[in-house]
Amino acid sequence: MHVINRGLVLINQFLIHKELKEINGPILVTGGAGFIGISLVENFLSKGVETHVLDNMSKGNENFVKRWQDDKNFKFFKIDLLEKDWDINEKYKAVFHLAADPEVRKSVTNSKEHFENNVLTTLNLLEKIKNWNIDYFVFTSTSTVYGEPKKLPTPESYSPLEPISPYGASKLACEALISSYSHLNAFRSYIFRLANIIGGNNTHGVIFDFIKKLKKNTNELEVLGDGKQSKSYLHVSDCITAIENAVMNSDSIVNYFNVGSEDRIGVGEIANLVINALNLKNTKVTYTGGVDGGRGWKGDVKTMILDSSKLRKLGWKSKYNSFDSVKQTINEMLGK
After folding, report:
1. What CA–CA distance (Å, rounded) separates 172 from 169?
2. Are 230 and 271 in contact (CB under 8 A)?
3. CATH superfamily assigned to domain 8-200+233-262+305-319
4. Which residue from 20, 54, 51, 50 is spatially nearest to 133, judged by alpha carbons?
5. Integer angstrom CA distances of residue 10 from 90, 185, 188
6. Which of 55, 212, 214, 321 lies 20 to 30 Å from 180, alpha-carbon distance?
7. In the chain, where are the structural domains located?
């Protein structure tokens, strides 16, 4: 099956393939009160799309849920996907699965919790949707499924996939589960291997940590590792347009896409950008030296840049590169 002349139709005002059966009813977003979920839900609601959010609120932002609750197109379910007997009186044609524990560093010290929050929740959701006759399933995976690839930028076809953290392993396991359920139950799935997605609503990550540290002590900023870690960063607004574009223009039973900027930025440069944004003049930057060759922690991928040319060939173009994504995020976090 192929896309005819890239012809598109409005499905609940969310654009998808002409070949897909028109979807009547709402879209479900798991983890919709989390960082990326917030931007995705905001995008849908701004277009008048009926959007239902399922979130256990362990890391969700209650302010956004309260802000959306008066929107006639919004419905919220406080549900933990780990509960096997969870149920809602709805069936959906489109599911966006973003619910997960996103903290890579924590996965090293609490692997069991990561397995449960990422893999078991995904399995429970897939078991539930078997009976919904869905058309497509969207999943936010991660660049960490590649581990430390020998090829940079890294394409979707790279192998073998050797994650070096339980977080990356859990996401790779989810990808395999989704692929199997797609084939068994005849629904399309879209798996997005994300670079470091950042924005003002981040509640973890290097920028958030630097700002938090400097607000406590303006005289010194400790950076984990040797400062030479260099990775790709992408603003969350670009991530949302990437997801939309891929779902509009790809039609395999299982679709894999890297999502990232075409460049990378070092952690030392990020530290300087945060210091300058706070108008600090005499802050000393110190480096811990790190572990295993300068990593910030065990399981930290030191160098990462994704080959997103597959997605860009479909017409997607990011607004921000890594440097601008970082600057924009710092300004948003500081309320500038």
Report:
1. 5
2. no
3. NAD(P)-binding Rossmann-like Domain (3.40.50.720)
4. 20
5. 22, 25, 18
6. 55
7. 8-200+233-262+305-319, 206-229+264-302
Distances (CA, A) of 168 to 142, 161, 162, 248, 284: 7, 10, 9, 27, 33
- Spatial contact of 131 and 137, defined as CB atoms under 8 Å apart: no
The values of phi and psi at residue 101, to 5°, are -95, 115
Tell me if the pTM is above 0.70.
yes
Q: Are 103 and 295 in contact (CB under 8 A)?
A: no
Residue 43 to residue 275: CA distance in whole angstroms:
32
Nearest one of 278, 282, 300, 304 to 291, comparing CA atoms = 300
Give the burial class of 105: count Cβ atoms within 10 A of its Cβ; 0-12 exposed, 13-18 middle, 19 or more buried: middle
Token pair for 64: 């956004």
Q: Residue 90 is encoded by which pair of tokens? A: 């709805």
List the beta bridge partners of residue 231.
265, 304
Task: Measure the CA–CA gap between 129 and 131, rounded to whole angstroms.
Answer: 5
Per-residue pLDDT in tens (0 to 9) along the chain, 336 residues: 333 333 333 333 344 333 333 456 799 999 999 999 999 999 999 999 999 999 999 989 999 999 999 999 999 999 999 997 888 988 899 999 999 987 776 666 778 888 999 999 999 999 999 989 999 999 999 999 999 999 999 999 999 999 999 999 999 999 999 999 999 999 999 999 999 999 999 998 999 999 999 999 999 999 999 999 999 999 999 999 999 999 999 989 999 999 999 999 999 999 999 999 999 999 999 999 989 899 988 889 999 999 999 999 999 999 999 999 999 999 999 998
Q: In what order do the strands lie in the sheet with 254-259?
A: 74-78, 51-55, 27-30, 94-97, 136-142, 188-194, 254-259
Torsion-angle region of 299 (φ positive above 0: left; ψ -120 to 50: alpha; else: beta): left
Angle, alpha carbons 325-190-152 (nearest 5°):
50
